[in-house]
Design goal:
By secondary structure, the protein is of the alpha/beta class. 31% of the residues lie in helices and 21% in strands. The chain has a domain of 127 residues: ANL, C-terminal domain (GMP Synthetase, Chain A, domain 3). The longest helix has 18 residues. Bound molecules: 5'-O-[(S)-butoxy(hydroxy)phosphoryl]adenosine (WT7). The site of 5'-O-[(S)-butoxy(hydroxy)phosphoryl]adenosine (WT7) has 22 residues, from helix 13, strand 20 and strand 24.
Length: 660
């Protein structure tokens, strides 16, 4: 006991950790010279990433930067992502497990797909999609929870050169419709439902509701996930049963289509500062090289591993680091359908123990929840198979970092705190686990070959110890190429702030991720959070404008302002300040209607933690809502500058309401 207390105290004081020697010995990357080597050899250093893939046609140029910011990578090269994730592993690893699926009901629903199984089903479904009419470059939408048919559908699309657009299953019918409309997507793959905490949940009802508001015809494929537990929707003429389609194609093989390196692999919608979600476009050559390289260098994935990332494939983390990166490396990737506390709070550790997972990559929000539940849960299990831990999605506080390091990693696993975004495709700022000293709370240095900086408003780097804005000053292969059918918004959102937009010299172009950050004297970067109107709830990005327009859509609401307030577990939570129209009262029913309105428009993740009815919102003299002040109120902090307010008294009024 006293040993343990001493250890905790020692751990609490320690602010840097060297990678464990046992890890370094076996790491995929362990030579510190890699930073200098990449610097000297840029951009050709990225051949190292591209060479991890099989190309049908070799590329003739690593980077074409003649028309910034419309960069092109590995030009002239041709490849297929599905062949890289499956076919090329068949000879050596055909009987090894590709996907280990842990489903619900607990212990009954698990399924194992070897690389050969995956090959067969992906081919059959690819043939079925073609039969339905899906052609090269047609966008196929997927609206599915964590079931194996989701990655199978993604890989089947990749095989026939049809970009996929996965919409998170927790999003609402309306969110589905908006994304299908925006992508002109005429195909949908979905399912009847899924299980949550042992109970069947209707999903097709929601999908149908979404389809009703899509203005064009849609052919859909429906996976029968619930069997006898299913809900009675039936299938319309344009809806096809997944199993029937696949059975009809039993044994069919489909030649993987040779795709140009710059051809779109997928679209992923993400939130921004306007109400309209942005369709981030990722490519076949650059994206796949990037996620494969970072899975190898940062997550230290090896073919014989059992790699576990309990994220959802509906978000970019799942695309890059459950599906594409791990499968391109021929490893076993796990998929988890359930929640971390069902049937008990040791569910994650039970799985790690049972399957001998070698890596565990999750979000700080989950780690904070684990920490709250207590060390007794990980202590129930043998976690010694773990070799590496990772975090992604939001800043992690040093205390949670140390808890993770000690109670999950047993002080024997390096932790990689990985900063990246939907737009970057894969990791950008993080340590190399076999090389870098770790500092809890800081993501670390930019990866070799990545030029990320912390700058002031003029774009000049700040001194060590100071805060500023994060920028990326050189292109990278995994970068988004544009926003779907909206080049103008692409330039405006990500480049205009720090670039000379009249220049055709790539040196004058700087990518702005819209994050604030600080840097220390060793060049370690701590990402502080978004500087735009975006809230990060449990590592999920939500636009305040989207939520506000949902609230204003509720009858009786005149005006709304949404900000992120600090939250113990979620990191940030949604706080909504609402002005009602005359004749409406801030009743409990009204509050419920607002919460429901948000759930209908976006989904339960956007659910406001607090709805504050107020007669007025703090505004500048020019009428702009002062969000900073609302954030301070939400966080119960000392109020910042109120001198420019048109209506300073309102702040105190709101504050009193919140405290009530
Ligand atoms: C935003 C991107 C990356 C996949 C999941 C989220 C925040 C991400 C970190 C980190 C601090 C982080 C940033 C970023 N973020 N990783 N390690 N430390 N903040 O993808 O929805 O595109 O959100 O998440 O604010 O801009 P996303």
């Amino acid at each position: 006991m006293s040993d343990n207390t001493e250890l905790e105290a020692h751990l609490a004081e320690q602010d840097s950790f060297d990678p464990p020697a046992s890890f370094v010995e076996q790491a995929n990357v362990s030579d510190p010279g890699i930073y200098e080597e990449f610097e000297q050899n840029w951009p050709d250093c990225w051949e190292r990433a591209a060479d991890l893939l099989d190309w049908n046609e070799p590329y003739d140029q690593v980077l074409d930067d003649s028309d910034p910011p419309f960069y092109e990578w590995f030009t002239g090269g041709e490849l297929n992502a599905s062949a890289n994730c499956i076919d090329r592993h068949l000879d050596e690893r055909g009987d090894e497990v590709a996907i280990e699926w842990i489903g619900e009901p607990v212990d009954e629903a698990n399924r194992t797909y070897t690389y050969r199984d995956l090959y067969e089903e992906v081919n059959e479904f690819a043939a079925a999609l073609r039969e339905l009419g899906v052609g090269e470059d047609d966008v196929v939408t997927m609206y599915m929870p964590m079931i194996p048919e989701l990655p199978i559908a993604m890989l089947a699309c990749a095989r026939i050169g049809a970009p996929h657009s996965v919409v998170f299953a927790g999003f609402s019918a309306e969110a589905l419709a908006t994304r299908m409309e925006s992508a002109d997507s005429e195909y949908l793959v979905t399912c009847d439902g899924y299980y949550r905490r042992g109970d069947p949940l209707d999903h097709l009802g929601k999908a149908n509701e979404g389809l009703d508001s899509v203005g064009h015809d849609v052919e859909s494929v429906v996976v029968d996930r619930l069997g006898d537990d299913g809900f009675d929707h039936g299938l319309s003429d344009s809806q096809h049963d997944y199993d029937e389609l696949v059975d009809e194609q039993a044994g069919t093989e489909v030649d993987p289509v040779s795709r140009d390196a710059e051809d779109m692999l997928f679209l992923m919608y993400t939130s921004g500062t306007t109400g309209q979600p942005k369709g981030v476009k990722h490519t076949t050559g650059g994206y796949l090289s990037w996620v494969t390289w970072t899975s190898r260098a940062v997550l230290d994935v090896k073919p014989e591993d059992t790699y576990f990332c309990p994220a959802d494939i509906g978000w970019i983390t799942g695309h890059s680091y459950i599906v594409y990166g791990p499968l391109a490396l021929g490893t076993t990737t796990m998929m988890y359908e359930g929640t971390p506390d069902y049937p008990e709070r040791d569910r994650m550790w039970e799985i790690v123990d049972e399957y001998d997972a070698t890596q565990f990559y999750t979000a700080p929000t989950a780690i904070r929840a684990f920490m709250k539940w207590g060390a007794e849960y990980p202590e129930r299990h043998d976690l010694s198979s773990l070799r590496l831990l990772g975090t992604v999605g939001e800043p992690i506080n040093p205390r949670a970092w140390k808890w993770y390091y000690k109670h999950v990693g047993d002080e024997a696993c390096p932790i990689v705190d990985t900063w990246w975004q939907t737009e970057t495709g894969g990791m950008m700022v993080t340590g190399l686990p076999g090389v870098s000293t770790m500092k809890p709370g800081s993501a670390g240095k930019p990866l070799p070959g990545v030029d990320a900086r912390v700058v002031n408003m003029d774009g000049d780097p700040v001194e060590g110890g100071q805060a500023g804005y994060l920028t990326v000053n050189r292109p990278w292969p995994g970068m988004l190429r544009t926003l779907y059918k909206n080049d103008e918004r692409f330039v405006e959102e990500y480049w205009a702030t720090y670039s000379d937009t009249d220049s055709t010299d790539s040196e004058d172009w700087v990518y702005f991720p819209e994050d604030g950050a600080k840097i220390d004297d060793d060049g370690y970067i701590t990402v502080l959070g978004r500087v735009d109107d975006v809230v990060n709830v449990s590592g999920h990005r939500l636009g305040t404008m989207e939520i506000e327009s949902a609230i204003v859509g509720v009858e009786g609401v005149a005006e709304a302002a949404v900000v992120g307030g600090e939250h113990d577990v979620k990191g940030e939570a949604v706080y909504a300040y609402v002005i009602l129209e005359d004749g409406y009262d801030g009743t409990e029913e009204m509050r419920e209607e607002i919460v429901e309105g948000v759930e209908d428009a976006i989904g339960p993740i956007a659910r406001p933690e607090a709805v504050v009815f107020t007669p007025e919102l703090p505004k500048t003299r020019s009428g702009k809502i002062m969000r900073r002040l609302l954030e301070d109120i939400a966080n119960d902090e000392e109020l910042g500058d109120t001198s420019t307010l048109r209506n300073p008294d309102v702040v105190e009024d709101i504050r009193v309401t919140v405290q009530d």
